[in-house]
Amino acid sequence: MSNLDEYGGGQGPDADVLVVTTNDVPGYRVERVIGEVFGLTVRSRHIGTQIGASFKSMLGGELRGLTKTLVESRNQAMQRLVEQTKARGGNAVLMMRFDVTEAADLGTEICAYGTAAVIVPAG
């Protein structure tokens, strides 16, 4: 796995479902709006990562272990979002967003959400 995959995310060029943060997709028209979809994951904190992060926070700098965990969590939530969209017959998610919250001091909840739709080439 490259640093790009460890510290970033998003779709590859051959994705079955296009996920965008915009209201529309240039060159396409929305044929049908399916509705809201979301993908959710809750991750507990790894004790080793927490201890390392505590020491690192005293010195300053990036908390790489926590960054990797958050990237993995967001990618998993997004994959679940895509699965929900495909299951409902969609080929696109418009206005995708992430929401991250603490889950009762036990971990972090990551939710990817947006509007599932069917898009077709315009024209």
TrEMBL record:
Signal peptide: none annotated. InterPro entries: UPF0145_dom_sf (IPR035439), UPF0145_YbjQ-like (IPR002765). Pfam families: YbjQ_1. Belongs to the UPF0145 family. This is UPF0145 protein GCM10009760_13460.
